[in-house]
Amino acid sequence: DALAGVIRQAFSLTEREAQIATLLAEGLSLPTIAERLRLGLGTVRNHVKSIFGKTETRRQGELVALLCALRL
Description:
mainly alpha, single chain
């Protein structure tokens, strides 16, 4: 996915973090992401916390807005 690649480079995310960030930007919930990627909900939450730190965001809405701006 092109967006995942841009996100990875822009914020030094791991492949899994970029994948989760992309799914968040598509509007998927954390439980849905966990199910789709066959991960535990706690694991997805830990990845999201790491994504917040690397993107300097604090809330999902803020993160999604940032990621959507990268699509332009």
